[in-house]
Amino acid sequence: MRPNSTTAANRAGFCLLGGLALATLLGCQSASGPRFDARAASAAKLGALTNFTTVTETNLLSLEWLKPPTNRFTLGPGDDLEIEIMGDTLTRATNFVAPDGRIYYYLLPGLDVWGLTLADTRALIERELLKYMREQPQVSVTLHGVESQQVWLLGRLNKPGVYPMPAPMTLIEALSLAGGPSSSSSPLASLGGGPVGSGSSEEIADLHRSFVMRDGQMLPVDFHRLVKEGDMSQNIYLRPDDFVYVPSATARDVFVLGAVLQPRPVVYRRRMSLVAAIANAQGTIKDAYLSHVAIVRGSLTEPEIALVDYKEIVKGKAPDVLLEPGDIVYVPFTPYRTLVKYADLIVKSFVQTIAINEGARAVSRNVNPVGVNIGVGASPGVSPPPAIP
């Protein structure tokens, strides 16, 4: 018998609805199953550094640095003098020491005073004037301005700048001259008679990373002990051309230095890894010794250092490591031999990089940041030795 068409249609519709329900059920079961989380997988490959070793600065403060210098002020280019023949006010004149170290006064030809004290300069002028006068003149020489001897006070200070240094000056006096370390509220009113920065406002100056640089070398001064604890054993006398830098405690940079294509500070981002930081410095160069990449953390006088085998990380045989703001990543050209000297080298490279960039920025805002490459056992400006396989 031929089936009823209505009954067949009902059966077909029932089968279709049943199939859709089954498909929906299977789909719901599939959607509620385990999912692949790329971020979780990536996080599993990141590890926190635990192998830090504290290294104490090997260079000790010299006792001579705590004593006022005995040498007297000597003239140089840019210094401002007022010279007068006593008893004749018409001879009073302002003289600047020229770039060649000479002054030009009255009837005299250029007199070379570069490196002379004020007393020596006065005697020289009197001796030369006698050639044009019948009686021995008495000359007054007064120093009105100093340009030849300066000290650099930069960074998170209330009045950063390049200051003249006509007389011996201690570090605490220099910080006071520059208004003291900056704070998140009002500037410090006074720094005399007690530890610098003793106000109640929150400090934004990083005293643990502050430094004094002299003749290309960092002096092992602990700014935190000096400023916060009033430890006068850290209050050294500065010398002309000393570079004092107080960084910001709120800066969020990671410094990538050494054998990378573009040594520079890298803006820290949340959960930044070692691989990401080095990639931001355009990667390592050919002669890099990847097995001894160092990460330095903490103060400059007592830094913590950890060694990482970067070669194993990029091969996927070791987990990448997490960095923190302020970390110094150093990729060497050769393997380190002693941990203390390696830490000293890294701190030296970091300080020189900061000094070069901040000093150039103080002179002109239109400068590009530079990095400093120093190979283990090499000096600044010397090509690094070849890598040891």
Descriptive key words:
389 residues, alpha+beta, Outer membrane lipoprotein wza fold like, wza like fold, 3 domains, 6-stranded mixed β-sheet, 5-stranded mixed β-sheet, 25% helix, 20% strand, disordered C terminus
Structure in words:
By secondary structure, the chain is α+β, with helices and mostly antiparallel strands. 25% of the residues lie in helices and 20% in strands. It is built from 8 helices and 20 strands. The strands form 6 sheets. Strands 2-18-17-20-15-16 form a 6-stranded mixed beta sheet, with helices on both faces. A 5-stranded mixed beta sheet has the order 9-8-14-11-12, sandwiched between helices. The chain has a 3-stranded antiparallel beta sheet with strand order 4-3-7, covered by helices on one side. The radius of gyration is 34 Å and the shape is elongated.
Short structural summary:
The chain contains eight helices and 20 strands. Helices cover 25% and strands 20% of the residues.
The CATH class designation of the largest domain is Alpha Beta
CATH architecture of the largest domain: Roll
N-to-C SSE series? HHEEEEEEHEEEEHEEHEEEEHEEHEEH
From the alpha-carbon coordinates, what is the Rg to the nearest angstrom? 34 Å
Q: List the domain count as a whole number.
A: 3
Query: Can you give the mean pLDDT?
Result: 81
Strand fraction: 15-25%
CATH homology superfamily of the largest domain: Outer membrane lipoprotein wza domain like
Number of helices: 8
Calculate the terminal CA-CA distance, rounded to whole Å.
92 Å
User: Which spans of ≥5 residues are poorly predicted at pLDDT below 50?
Assistant: 5-10, 12-44, 186-200, 372-389
Annotated CATH topology of the largest domain? Outer membrane lipoprotein wza fold like
